UniProtKB/TrEMBL annotation:
GO terms for cellular component: membrane. GO terms for molecular function: hydrolase activity. This is Alpha/beta hydrolase. Keywords: Hydrolase. Transmembrane segments: none annotated. It comes from Catellatospora coxensis. Residues 12-237 form the AB hydrolase-1 domain. InterPro entries: AB_hydrolase_1 (IPR000073), AB_hydrolase_fold (IPR029058), AB_hydrolase_sf (IPR050266), Epox_hydrolase-like (IPR000639). The lineage of its organism: Bacteria, Bacillati, Actinomycetota, Actinomycetes, Micromonosporales. It comes from the Bacteria. SUPFAM superfamilies: alpha/beta-Hydrolases.
Length: 254
């Protein structure tokens, strides 16, 4: 299955991997900035998000990204990943280092992280709401948890619509449910330069992950934003876009 996607611009390829509270629409504020700077931008919806249906066979997200790049004729790409999209970007960069030119990871997750008390409590509350059939309540919980205080109402509404749609797709009855294929991932295999962004108003877990990765990944640096929640690319794109462009101009000049 090919992931639903769109492509804009010309130049070095940049792949945008969305947070799992969102879909590829979260990158609307970045698209004109990146294409205007001379990059070919690929946005995709992961399986079960946006316009991509649930999987019809066992799957792996990083393999899906590799397959999409193959289809588009892109041998290499820089990856910008938010939260769960960052976790996928890390796996891709570790398994396909020769194909990865740079990594920009925004409030990234990582596969082996043990969640802290607040994050576990959030997960328990979300599970309880969904088990009770309260999709609207679970949606609002996610908006409250993941959107930072400096986001405007339009941003909150978009996150609300993206998350509600994801729940509807993922909770719909399936003929058969297929799990994700797990691969052994050695992050020390990553060779691409990496920018790790965390936010002051996010769960502490994501700051800790950024600090840890900045120590483990050669050629990486950590930027902590005092204004940001979990979705800085949506909350203040006018401040985040220059950060991304500056990093890309250094690592993948157009």
């Amino acid at each position: 299955m090919t992931l639903s996607h769109d492509v804009a611009g010309d130049g070095p390829t940049i792949v945008l991997l969305h947070s799992t509270v969102c879909d590829r629409r979260m990158w609307d504020p970045q698209l004109p900035a990146l294409t205007g700077a001379g990059y070919r931008v690929v946005r995709c919806d992961l399986r079960g998000f946006g316009d991509s249906p649930m999987p019809d066979r066992p799957y792996n997200n990083a393999d899906d990204v590799a397959g999409l790049l193959d289809e588009l004729g892109a041998e290499q790409a820089a990856l910008i990943g938010a939260s769960g999209g960052g976790r996928i970007a890390l796996e891709f960069a570790a398994r396909f280092p020769q194909r990865t030119t740079a990594l920009a990871l925004l409030c990234t997750a990582v596969a082996d992280h043990e969640p802290g008390e607040r994050l576990r409590a959030f997960g328990d509350q979300e599970d309880a709401l969904l088990e009770a059939g309260d999709v609207a309540g679970a949606t609002e919980l996610n908006v409250t948890a993941w959107v930072g205080p400096h986001a405007d109402d339009a941003t909150r509404d978009l996150v609300r619509r993206m998350q509600r749609h994801a729940f509807e797709v993922q909770l719909a009855p399936q003929e058969q449910e297929y799990g994700s294929i797990k691969h052994d991932v050695d992050l020390s295999a990553i060779t691409a330069p990496a920018l790790l962004v965390s936010g002051e108003h996010d769960f502490a877990d994501f700051h800790a992950i950024a600090v840890r990765l900045s120590e483990e990944l050669a050629g990486s640096r950590h930027l902590h934003l005092d204004w940001a929640g979990h979705l800085p690319s949506m909350e203040r794109p006018d401040e985040l876009n220059p950060v991304l462009l500056g990093f890309l101009r250094e690592t993948v000049p157009a």
